[in-house]
Design goal:
Length: about 110
């Protein structure tokens, strides 16, 4: 189970976009430990025209993946970056108990996304 998932709001804690700490929503999580975050790590890319895909050429601004260690999950209750932990919960399901793993904020113990 990953600590940061698609749809989480994260804040940049180190790197080029950290000075006025940028926030964004995770669009995609890659297997190599990188994240694609909306509005973060923007680069200029020189693109050739491709008439087959109906693309024009020129200089475009594009989001690039950022290392997961350079971001932290954003806690809306405190308004700051926070760490993620895990807790197991017991659930009654028709007479039998099941356990499930839940992500929590380390500072408060509240569930992430709840």
């Amino acid at each position: 189970m990953n600590k940061i998932r698609k749809g989480d709001t994260v804040i940049v804690i180190s790197g080029r976009d950290s000075s006025p700490a940028k926030r964004g929503v995770v669009k995609q999580v890659y297997d190599d430990g990188k994240l694609l975050v909306e509005g973060v790590n923007l680069v200029k890319k020189h693109q050739k025209p491709n008439p087959m895909k109906n693309q024009t050429g020129g200089i475009i601004t594009k989001e690039m993946p950022i290392q997961a260690s350079n971001v932290a999950i954003f806690n809306p209750a405190t308004g700051k970056a926070d760490r993620v932990g895990f807790k197991t919960e017991q659930i009654n399901d028709g007479g039998r108990t099941k356990t499930r793993k839940v992500r929590i904020f380390r500072s408060s113990g509240n569930a992430v996304g709840a």
